[in-house]
Amino acid sequence: MSSALKEQQEIILQYLNTTHYIDTNSPQAKEKQQAKYKIGKACNKAREILCSDEAFLDWVWLNVIDECSTNIEEVTPNTLISWRMLPKFGTLEECEIVGFTHIAKLLNDKNAAMKAEVLDIIANNDPETAKKLIKMVLKPAIDFTPIVANKKNLADTVEKADKLSKDALVALVKAMHKEMTKS
């Protein structure tokens, strides 16, 4: 293994101890996020050195996962691939504002306009305001008022309630309550 790959391996393994440490003295959430971001950067550097995604995955299995300490949670290639997305999205601070779980969605080609809007919100607002605005972009409010007003549409929607997301179900119940309490 080249010295450049060895260096990335050491960085990844070091920070995996931070992200996956299980104990009463485990690192704070902020430290874990920083470690995930640094692992993402190291994985990207390793991928640049390797000739293909397949070679990268082979390298991850042999040189990261197989080398992980046995006292940390299991690490998977999917975890590392997800963390590779963080530096591709933006800075650690931008990722923290958006929320790590939303990064892959925003990096999807079909969501390029949404990503641009999110980055614009971050650039033009304080972090707390940006978080609130981004939440509205990522999970827009669902208005069930027209559905609730039509009994057939309401019956069809309620019949499929088990397929609704938690947020959609809450919005449906609120719309039903609003309709029922009208005077």
What does this molecule look like?
This protein is mostly helical and 183 residues long. Helices cover 71% and strands 0% of the residues. It has eleven helices and no strands. α1 (3-19) packs antiparallel against α2 (29-49), α2 (29-49) crosses α4 and α7 (112-124) runs antiparallel to α8 (127-138). The longest helix is centred in the first third of the chain and has 21 residues, at 29-49. 21% of the residues are buried. The mean pLDDT is 86.
Topology:
Blueprint: H1 3-19, H2 29-49, H3 53-65, H4 77-89, H5 92-98, H6 103-107, H7 112-124, H8 127-138, H9 145-149, H10 151-159, H11 166-180
Helix pairs in contact: 1-2, 2-4, 7-8
- What count of helical segments does DSSP give? 11
Beta-strand portion reads under 5%
Helix content: over 70%
- Determine Rg (CA atoms, Å): 22 Å
Summarize this, please?
By secondary structure, this protein is an all-alpha fold.
What features would you highlight for this structure?
single chain; 183 residues; elongated; mainly alpha; 11 helices
